[in-house]
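look at this fold:
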Amino acid sequence: MIKVEAQPIAVSLLRAAELLGVHERHILNAVRSHELRAYQRGIAVRVLTIDLVDWVRKHWKPRRTTKSRQPREQKDKQHAD
């Protein structure tokens, strides 16, 4: 039997920040500037996880990899030869 974990549809601003490894203020600023859509019910503010993914893809730059860097295993193997 395959065990599948349910993913939340929406998360709090704090949880969104934790998932991305940024300060909650960063998420709040994105919401205030309308870069990231948030939903409010009473005092609870939530961000849809799909909107969070789209926001990251749109506003974050992908990390560049350099050709000169090699994984440690390859470096160790070259020095052992």
Observations:
- The helical segments are 13-20, 24-32, 49-59, 72-80.
- The chain has a mean pLDDT of 86.
